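Budget justification aside, the reviewers requested a transparent look at the raw inputs and outputs of the sequence design task funded under Objective 1. We therefore reproduce one unedited record. The lines immediately below are the structure tokens for a 71-residue chain.
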């Protein structure tokens, strides 16, 4: 059975790099975005795509310009 969850390893790597470079922990990011740490882990691994609201929150937290998103 194929999973219906959206995966994107390129976006996951982008999110992981931005969070790592910002010096924030996954716990801190999760707290700021009002999501669980596991969700942030999934976003960073590319196993799940964040919602637009969450993605914009990550960009704001990491001081990243939206034009840098790899799509």
């Amino acid at each position: 059975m194929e999973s219906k969850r959206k995966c994107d390893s390129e976006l996951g790597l982008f999110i992981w790099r931005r969070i790592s470079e910002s010096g924030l922990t996954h716990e801190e990011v999760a707290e700021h975005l009002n999501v669980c740490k596991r969700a942030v882990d999934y976003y960073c691994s590319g196993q799940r795509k964040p919602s637009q609201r969450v993605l914009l929150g990550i960009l704001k937290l990491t001081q990243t310009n939206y034009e840098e998103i790899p799509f």
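The chain has one domain: 9-60. The radius of gyration is 11 Å. Computational costs for records of this kind are itemized in the attached budget.
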